[in-house]
Amino acid sequence: MDYESQAWVAALTAGGSERESAVARLHELLLRAARFEASRRRDSLARVGAAELDDLAHQAADDALMAVLRKLDSFRGDSRFTTWAYKFALLEAGVKLRRRAWEGRELSLDAEGRPSLPDLRPSPHADAETSELLGALRTAIDTELTPHQRDVLVAVTVQDVPIDVLAERMGSTRGALYKTLHDARRRLRAHLGAQGLRVGDSDA
Amino acid sequence: MRDDERLIGRLLGPAGQEVTCDTCFEQLDAYVDLELAGRDADAELPGMRAHFEGCPACAEDHESLVALVSRERR
Questions:
Q1: How many angstroms away from the CA of A123 is the closest CA of chain B?
Q2: Cβ within 8 Å, pair B61-A94
Q3: Helical ranges in A71-173 per DSSP H
Q4: Which chain B residue has its CA at the smallest distance from A178's CA?
Q5: Bigger pLDDT: B51 or B5?
Q6: B1 CB near a chain A CB, below 8 Å?
Q7: Going from the N-terminus, what domains does chain A have, and what CATH number goes with each?
């Protein structure tokens, strides 16, 4: 572990005023990271005022501080301490900002109330192979996947719903939904590959 | 890349082995420090790059961490 990282860990595990001072410095660092993330996402949050954005950054920094202190024992020095700490702030800020950007937005649903899948018509310039693959994919999504796999795949990859926004709405977690997405993709790859269609090198 | 190919890529995801979202988060800081040190992060932490291709949220977290750490070290 590099010297600066050791110093952070030592100060955060010390007692009294040394720890208080280190926690305050850490919060400043996390707030800087959260504000950086808010600034990067300003375009997708044009309707959100500067004060609310800064409030979200503060909430993200507060939550990240709790996470960093709770997981401090697991920091092994595989990176610099600041890089390790920043990722918690960026994660918290990213989740909060994506959810805020999608607040009040509804998924596009079909007649059965499920995420709607368009026809996946190839563009006029598509070659025959691409057209065939898209057609086979459209069919396989309806015939080879479970309803849950289909809904997650369509929402995330076609409708571009952020996976943590979808997780919140489905009462699930990002990790669980990504597992569903991964399984759905493997099933599609295996099915299309068995039909002799070229889908790249598959791990399925 | 044309829209058709991009859509097919999003639907089918990465071809290679990839880590989970949880593992990606665990290794993200080490991966970024390796990248910024000019080392072969993909060889040392396999499965991360494929996961970024398949998971837009983790890809955004990765891009943000690279951008932030790069800026802080300038």
A1: 7
A2: yes
A3: 81-102, 128-144, 147-153, 163-170
A4: B21
A5: B51
A6: no
A7: 3-102 (1.10.1740), 107-204 (1.10.10.10)
- B57 close to B65: Cβ distance less than 8 angstroms: no
Domain ranges across chain B: 3-73
**A158 interface with B at CB cutoff 8 Å:** yes
Which pLDDT band, with edges at 50, 70 and 90, does A204 fall under?
very low
Please name the member of A82, A123, A157 whose beta carbon is closest to the beta carbon of B3: A123
Is residue B64 a contact partner of residue A36, using CB atoms and an 8 Å limit?
yes
3-class SS of residue A170: helix
Quote the pLDDT of residue A111: 72
Cβ separation of B29 and A87 shorter than 8 Å? yes
Residue with tokens 């990002």: A174
Give the residue-averaged pLDDT of A85-106: 93
User: What's the rounded Cα separation, in Å, for the pair A93 and A62?
Assistant: 10
Angle between helices B3-12 and A128-144 (to 10 degrees): 30
Interface test with B, best of A86, A166, A195 (most B CBs within 10 A): A86
- What is the DSSP annotation of A177-201? HHHHHHHHHHHHHHHHHHTT----S
A115 SS3 class: strand
Complex ipTM over 0.90: yes
